[in-house]
Amino acid sequence: MSRHIVIGTAGHVDHGKTALVRALTGIDTDRWEEEKRRGITIDLGFASLRLSDDLTASIVDVPGHEDFVRNMVAGATGIDVALLVVAADEGIMPQTEEHLAILEFLGVAAGVVAVSKADVVEDDWLELVVADVAERLERSAVSWSDPLVVSSVTEQGIDDLKAQLDTLGQHTARQSHDDVFRMPVDRSFSVSGAGTVVTGTTWSGTVAVGDRVRIIPGTERARVRTVEVHGEARDAADPGRRTALALPNVSRDHVRRGTVIVTEDGWQETARIDALVTLLPNAKPLTQRSRIRVHLGTAEVFARVTPQADDIAPGGEGAVRLRLESPVVARWGDRGVLRSYSPVTTVGGCVVVDPDPPQRPRRPQHLEHRAVSDPIERAREFVRLAGAQGMMRSSFAVRVGVHPSTIDDVAAALEHDGVRVFGETFYDGGVVESAADQVRSLLEEYHRAHPLEPGMRRDLLRQRVEPGVIADAVVTMLVDADVVVVEGETARLPNFRAALGTTRQQDANSLRELLRVAGSKGMRVVELEEVVAEARDLAEFLVRQGEVRRIGADRYYEAGELERVKDEVVSEIQEVGGIATPAQLRVRTGLSRKYLIPVLEWMDAAGFTTREGDGRRVGPRS
Hints:
There is one protein chain. The protein is of the alpha+beta class. The radius of gyration is 38 Å and the shape is elongated. The protein has six domains: 3-170, 3-Layer(aba) Sandwich (Rossmann fold); 182-262, Translation factors (Elongation Factor Tu (Ef-tu), domain 3, Beta Barrel), CATH 2.40.30.10; 269-370, Elongation Factor Tu (Ef-tu), domain 3 (Beta Barrel), CATH 2.40.30.10; 375-427, Arc Repressor Mutant, subunit A; 431-492, Orthogonal Bundle (Arc Repressor Mutant, subunit A), CATH 1.10.10.10; 505-622, Arc Repressor Mutant, subunit A (Orthogonal Bundle). The chain is built from 19 helices and 34 strands. Strand 4, helix 4 (94-105) and strand 5 form a beta-alpha-beta unit. The protein starts with a strand and ends with a strand.
């Protein structure tokens, strides 16, 4: 199976990076007239290189001039192997040091060193430069190979350089194809017949012709019309490939360097990031509200710094919240570069620990728990931090940095540790237990306050439990545990039964007697309350017992009396030939229209009768 890596150049201006890429690939990566006129690289250049039968590389050629370091950072993100170029006639220079720092902050693991322009210096000077470069790189966090002496003019060492890149590339693992897709955009342009075309390095996952993609920041969506890898049409692009996507019906204004193309809904833009920061020894301290430039992917945005605790001293490390002035797309574990606001120099690097932290507290907390390498321990902390809001399963891949193929295993481990899952949302066990305690307490209080009601309405319970979004799920959990009983839309505790005490029994007798005397006219609540305290609750209790009937909102009847009226109405209809008018029914029942019409409407609703024109017939509507 063919493998692919991304190689990124680094080094001081005019040290021969572009010439070396041309010697390796035969491709001139300087695309602009100004680059050719000035003899320096200004923007990113790209070339493809086959290193062996089973390994190809995309080379990203970056500018070395200090004025274009922002372009260098955009190109260096996402590379697998660094190709550091140091000119033999100058040795290590300021941008060499800055590029080294950037590679270290971006977490590049390994690199090859080419001492270029060997054809323009004497051998003894060349030996001194090689020794000086080797000594400097021993202090680097990147694992560098021994320096190779090369010349783009004479092609000295070019084959050795290819071989070393191949050896290093064979041990470089790309992210798997089934990861979530993400491609930071470094260029966009319009092509007649294709629409807007965006290019970048596929960081993770795959994208295929016909896929629906999102453009973030923003809300634009599009369907991929074509996919190209190094100018060749493909059905799909894999991780580590230099990719061009044609996105029809998308304005070029909506895609620019710093934009990210994704396919999964788990991705979102963010204006807050919790991160671990490392400063260079010569940097200024990072204090509350320090303004800096943050480079993530191909994006460069301004941000204000809020340290977790103390200010971060030069050469030091610390946890911060970055409040971004423009939104970006980030994932747990992403590495970025920090540059000062003015003058613009590289001052440090950062590792994203939470790409979408809660707004409160304003200062980041417990970053060490969210930064751990164990994905299960990390996910547990994120769920705990989510509190009553819970954490959606769809956010695990991006926010927690969990590979999609491992989410099931992580979820199972979390449940084993007491995390509860309702639908697609994960809740800390403490949050769920708190909600369960609230349900029990609310039901106890409700039973005491409303002893005649069968229980508490579930909609009312839902309003009073925090968080309300899990109230139904918690009630279901308690039902399964025989802690709560649900009957229709009412919830109660198992040992509760609505019942009349001695005093209320006397009131119930009085209320029944009042309704018996009222007969077929019934009585309204306000009339009952003139004689019986809290008449509505008592009347509703008797309704549930089947001793009383209610018509409309507040008129009650003794059940036997209403049943008698119903029978009289049915008999009259049958006796007059199938349809009886209200006038005929008034004579039979002795009720005025004021009392008869509500009874007839109740009978219609119950299916005892059906209205036809001005009369009623027996039976429900067919």
